[in-house]
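Deliverable D4.2, example record:
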Amino acid sequence: MRYVKYRGNDNNIIFTTMDTPIQIEERLWDYIDGLSSPEERSAIQTLIAENIEWQRKYKELLNIHQAMNEVELEAPSMRFTKNVMEEIARYQVAPATKTYINKNIIRSIGAFFLTLIAGFLIYCLGQFKWSSQPTSSSFMPHIDLDNEMKKFDWSRVFNSAYTNVFILVLVVLGLVMLDMYLQRKRQQRQAREGS
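Output generated by the structure prediction step:
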């Protein structure tokens, strides 16, 4: 960084850095706005008096500052809000619909989760040992369900973190769907009673 020596009004020697144009502009804005310290103000006054680049930039920023002070902000007309509301009233507002979601989408999501639940149940039933022989009077094997439940290794099914997360998500979604169904029934009942 280069330093330049200037002699101030009171014959004190002032050392200042050769600033970039951005730094010059920042220092001049602080000078114009009155934010700089007294020592810095006197150094900037000396630089403006002796340096052509600083003089040119100071005049440019001073003109911008004066132009900004002369410009008044435009205020909206007194009827601005009323004009806007009248313009909106010209257009036909779409009536509120009963639902914004297609019922087929909701049904397909429900069918997807029901399929997942059914697949999980089939998987669990597939883990049973179906070893007993069918009798001649029945085409289905006889299963002692109480005994089979005691022998079944439940840790094979519920030991996986994925299975536990899946069951948790299904339970939460099932409760949400039950809540939505009960709210809809309650709203329909209130609408019938109110009519």
